């Protein structure tokens, strides 16, 4: 009887880990204010027909680069300076990513609680035990996500 709930907990855990990685990855992609030696980004295009597409992708990813010039097989981009307005926008974006992650964690939590209530093969003690374990997992992952957001905000503010 305990194999099914353990399997479910493993599925929930792997789902939480994958969601956490997604949201922390989104937070890490937000540009920081650290001075980088990579002020100019040079992209080599081995296929001249792909050059406009490469340029579009780099500009669309909004990583803080602006197009400078191009040659037959190279594109040059420079890193724009971060203004206070841009910093505030990036911090706001980080908060939105965190809120989206918390929402996903809540949905996972709700689904699991519903499943535990419906599961007839478990005693009340087992249900409470599994619910406490899931509560702790959700809380831990929410804290990790919040810590990643705080780290990004500190990075952007420095």
From TrEMBL:
Gene3D superfamilies in the record: Ribosome-recycling factor
All residue ranges annotated as the Ribosome recycling factor domain in the record: 42-156
UniProt-recorded name of the protein: 17867_t:CDS:1
InterPro entries given in the database record: Ribosome_recyc_fac_dom (IPR023584), RRF_sf (IPR036191)
Record-linked Pfam families: RRF (PF01765)
Record carries keyword NADP: no
Keywords attached to this entry: Coiled coil
Residues forming coiled coils: 127-158
């Amino acid at each position: 009887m305990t194999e099914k709930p353990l399997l479910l907990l493993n599925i929930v855990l792997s789902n939480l880990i994958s969601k956490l990685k997604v949201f922390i990855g989104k937070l890490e992609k937000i540009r920081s204010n650290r001075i980088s030696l990579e002020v100019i980004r040079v992209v080599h295009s081995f296929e001249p027909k792909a050059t406009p597409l490469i340029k579009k992708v780099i500009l669309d990813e909004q990583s803080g680069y602006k197009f400078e010039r191009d040659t037959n097989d190279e594109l040059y981009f420079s890193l724009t300076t971060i203004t206070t307005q841009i910093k505030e926008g990036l911090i706001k974006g980080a908060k939105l990513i965190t809120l989206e992650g918390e929402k996903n964690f809540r949905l996972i939590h709700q689904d699991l609680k519903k499943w535990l209530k419906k599961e007839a093969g478990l005693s009340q003690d087992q249900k409470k035990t599994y619910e406490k374990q899931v509560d702790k997992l959700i809380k831990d992952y929410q804290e990790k996500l919040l810590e990643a957001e705080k780290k990004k905000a500190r990075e952007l503010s420095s």
